[in-house]
Amino acid sequence: MRKILNLYAGIGGNRKLWDGDFEITAVEYNKKIAEIYRDLYPGDIVIVGDAHHYLLKHFKEYDFIWSSPPCPSHSRMRMVRKDKFIYPDMRLYQEIIFLSYFFKGKFVIENVVSYYPYLIKPSVILERHVFWSNFDIPGKDFNFKRKDFTEMTVKDFQEYYNIDLSRYNGIDKTKILRDIVHPEIGKYILDIAMSI
User: So what's the pLDDT on residue 171?
Assistant: First the structure.
């Protein structure tokens, strides 16, 4: 059985189509979001905690690591939000460098298309996501049919991802659903990693 670490897991959109003989550990900081992940994937180990800290302590225990560090500080939307200035969250680059030099398994780190030139060249851009990895991920056009993300409602997102959050309250469903990596992209990348 291969062990997979899914960091900054959210509700697990990237993991939705993963099948196989895997032991999956998900780390999510937000307790309510972690509870949704646990409901959707009851066979996974779910840890409510700091994914960045968990990675440093446990990376040697896994065969494959997927990390999706927070993206709002890197997003091109920063150029629109000129009323709220923030520093870029450097956990993204810390994890790329750390895993590149110390992790023996396969890894992928996902984020958004940034408003600045990348400090470390990405491996591939798929749809609206940028990926860094220590294995080759060929480009692919997924041809997803959807409205512009800024126009999508919660209902639109749920249909697009085939995920139903109607029974959950007290969460920003739009933000949660907007942050998901499409399940087909998650499967595509995992399948490549596992075939090597």
Answer: 93
Domains of the chain, by residue range, sit at: 2-142+182-195
pLDDT at residue number 84: 77
Average pLDDT over residues 86-95: 93
- The encoded tokens of residue 34 equal 């972690």
- pTM passes above 0.85: yes
Identify the band that residue 82 occupies on the pLDDT scale cut at 50, 70 and 90. low
Angle formed by the axes of helices 91-102 and 51-58, nearest 10°: 10
- Which CATH number is correct for 2-142+182-195, 3.40.50.150, 2.30.42.10, 3.10.129.10, 3.40.630.30? 3.40.50.150
* pLDDT score for 192: 97
